[in-house]
Amino acid sequence: MGLHCLRHSYVTHLIEAGYDPAFVQTQLGHSHASTTGLYTSVSADFKQRTVQRMIARRLGTVTETADG
User: Fold this and answer.
1) Alpha-carbon distance 1 to 17, whole Å?
2) Which of 32, 33, 39, 48 could form a disulfide with 11 if both were Cys (CB 3.0 to 4.6 A apart)?
3) Residue 66 pLDDT > 70, yes or no?
């Protein structure tokens, strides 16, 4: 595993753990969020949970759980 791969993993784990994207951007020293986005490779499961939460919020049926 090279350093570049480690950097990608670090960013992905921070995002999936719920850290603020602005914090992650600062950690990497990027000026633009779009650059940070290039380093993020979240799982399909994470994407699905995020979409479900956004839909629930939009519909006003959100119920927060321990996992977010």
Assistant:
1) 22
2) 39
3) no
